[in-house]
Design a protein that fits this description.
Strand order of the largest sheet: 5-6-4-7-3-8-9
Low-confidence stretches: none
Radius of gyration: 22 Å
Structural class: alpha/beta
Shape: globular
Number of helices: 17
Mean pLDDT: 85
Amino acid sequence: MDQLAAFRNVAEVLRAAQRVAIEVENAPEKRKRLRGFSLAESATLLGMPVAELRALARASLPGWAPGPRARLSFEQIGQLRSAPPASKSAGERLRRRRRQEGAPPARIVFTNFKGGSAKTTSSVHFAQYMALAGYRVLLVDLDSQGSATAQFGFDPAYEAGMHSSFAAWTAAREEGTAADLDVAALCQRTYWPTIDLVPAGAALAAAEESLARRAASGAVEEILYFDEFDAFLRALPSHYDIVVVDTRPDVNMLMTAALHAATGIIVPTRATMTDLASTGEFFAHIASYIGDFSSAFGTTLAPAFARILITAYDPTDRSQEALFALAKDRFGKMVLPEPFLHSRILGTAGLGKETLYEYEPTTDRAAYQRALNSVNTVNALIERDIVAAWGKPAPRGRS
């Protein structure tokens, strides 16, 4: 077998394995399904005692029976969130979080140079946290590896081609046919009822090449490549509250275009010298780019906030503890004060391509709860930054 044939064989075998895994995991509908939530979980999500939740569910969900193992679907939790409250305090707890009328969706970009920084893990968990909080979310995968796409049960090799990813937009813009493109059709429904996905796969390379050609052309109208992602988001239906963007871990045109559209930037990194050094180079690149861009165009990138998120954190590792403390001391509020803890539970859940919000532990519930509390705390901090950017009071009932 020559080298070309060997490469093709590897691709075919692993693609077939991915396809089979997705079909087995998602049987019988061949799509992932979202589990129901226990009454304790549902009560936590809605910020009320279990007894109050039972009473509200009995009154608001026809036919619902509060048995010993009663559960609520995601849709039912949404119904309860919008149900007529029994009291003013209950109404405050149940209010549906929404951006102010006329305010644009918040665009939160998860990005860094370094692979293995838990960028996709962080972005997917954040998207699901926001959905559970009552927001309508669009996750845009701008990483041609398609890890976020696969996490939601889509096959990047077969379901994220030229006409079903962001590449469709850049191609249409380059050809002058964007007005004929059904942009909303690029937003695929997922098994999370309030999360849509713009998937990614290897075909996304065409979008990268398109933006690079336009940037290299030198024509003023072509240089506006950096506005392409913003233009894409503005062309979408207006019902999304949050757009979460997962970028590729390197210097690339898609990442740059995403940063131009960002309300907030989250930079995940591990608390090791290697990872933090790479993160330093990332910020050096961004600072240099912003300086050059400002000189050339007389304007600048101005996200409402940028935060460094420490991931895979082991509080028993003294070197990590020291580096985290150093980062907080040197960079202040730019570093999220709570880290995303390392936990073997993440690995256990990941075997079934489940997040912490989807996984149900059968053993070691204490370890699961520690990991869940950690990711909830991190995501609540980002949520507060978004609400502040909207000019609204910080949300209550979740921390």
